[in-house]
Design goal:
Two copies of one chain form a homodimer.
Chain A lengths: L1 H5 L5 H21 L2 H8 L4 H7 L2 H19 L3 H4 L5 H17 L6 H11 L6 H25 L5 H20 L1 H7 L7 H24 L5
Chain A binds a DNA duplex (30 and 30 nucleotides) through helix 4.
Chain lengths: 220, 220
DNA sequence: CTTTGTTTCAAACAATCGTTTGAATCGCTT
DNA sequence: AAGCGATTCAAACGATTGTTTGAAACAAAG
């Protein structure tokens, strides 16, 4: 894949394909997305996928890596990682960041959606393992650090994982259950202000839980 | 659809198709599931789908309703709805019930998985609207009642929705991010005991949050 | 047994899809 | 201008899919 990685900056066709594919894969998922639709969106011939990427699957793997890199540029975790800030503030940044990835309906928001899709229903491309190892685990470690500071010692590793998942699960809800929210209570994410309110709600809920659990004797 | 509903008890082929389809749709999703695979599993001819159900889409709609009815039989919300129990206990039952639907790997656990799939990525069959209106909203009302008792008055309707979503999101996480959990921390749901521990953790986290928020001045 | 309606079946159909193919075009170097 | 490699293209290919079709088999009633 290194040969490919050296090329993209100077290859307009390849770049157009990547961006179109990101859109279509995020919207439709791997299976439903067709090479013809991607190529139509990129305004290139269908054979270009095979020429530039060898196959639909290889394109997908490339898009997944590309998506994650771009999401990190748009929604960096720098504030969530800044140890000079209090853990509550870091957690609020982490949550706001993750939620924004789920709810950004502009072009760049497709990254979070694509990732959420892949996690929920991994494609046979094997791309998920690589993305988890190289990029998602470091983000989980940021969250683990914040949670550990807030609850203090005394929790098993398994319970630490569960606490982290409880926080992330609240944010991912807004992607995975978007169809439900749009039908039942669309107003809660209707404007940037409401999205910020939602992030606040998740942060307060989670911080309240962690602090309350910290004041108990440790094990829940 | 009423004509169909009167038939199923006495039609073995139809029933076999429904059950096979539930399995395959839950595992593969609507698009990836093929009529041939479903019919092979049910040991019937492929044309039977069109004869008994008119189309793949109609079969899916029927399976979705069937799935929800069966999940309610297996995992009833009676304890969560029992107003004589304290709200904390009711919430623990609600969470345990919802989590079990997500994590039951036996045949009957397919229901929750199918529903989670449909919500995350609605099929063009239009079946989701019906399921939401007739069956899922009553369950949301159960949860809303519990949350209202725990946090007390002073919260806007939007924030009540967000609180409910925070609780449900933690449980759905175990379905949507199963691939991630299986790679990073599979032990947390490896045995029935661990699943119960996970439900406890979610319940404690949520109850802690709600109680802490209740002792504040109301609005988060 | 005949008639009628129901159910099942194998084959066929039309559409879609990712991929391959070989020619044409393009771009660069000498 | 010629040569070479890179890129694009339209057509074709083989596989897959949901659906249709008409015949065969089955079941029930008279």
């Amino acid at each position: 894949m290194n040969a490919f990685n050296d090329t993209p900056c100077h290859d307009p066709t390849r770049k157009r394909l990547l961006q179109a594919a990101l859109d279509v894969f995020a919207d439709k998922g791997f299976r439903d997305a067709t090479v013809r639709e991607i190529c139509a969106k990129a305004e290139v011939n269908a054979a270009s996928v095979n020429y530039h990427f060898r196959s639909k699957e290889a394109l997908y793997s490339e898009v997944l890596s590309f998506a994650y890199r771009e999401a990190n540029e748009r929604y960096p975790y720098t504030l969530a990682s800044d140890a000079s800030l209090p853990p509550e503030v870091r957690l609020r940044h982490f949550i706001g960041n993750l939620l924004a990835r789920m709810l950004d309906d502009t072009y760049l928001g497709r990254h979070g959606k694509l990732l959420a899709r892949e996690i929920a229903d991994p494609t046979p491309t094997g791309a998920l393992d690589q993305v988890i190892e190289t990029t998602m685990k470091p983000h989980c470690e940021v969250l683990d650090g914040i949670v550990a500071e807030l609850v203090g010692p005394g929790y098993s590793e398994a319970d630490m994982h569960r606490l982290g998942l409880s926080i992330v699960g609240q944010c991912l809800m807004y992607h995975h259950s978007r169809s439900l929210i749009d039908r039942v209570c669309p107003e809660i994410i209707a404007t940037p202000e409401e999205i910020a309110n939602t992030a606040d709600c998740i942060a307060h809920f989670s911080i309240a839980a962690l602090k309350h659990l910290a004041t108990k004797d440790g094990r829940a």
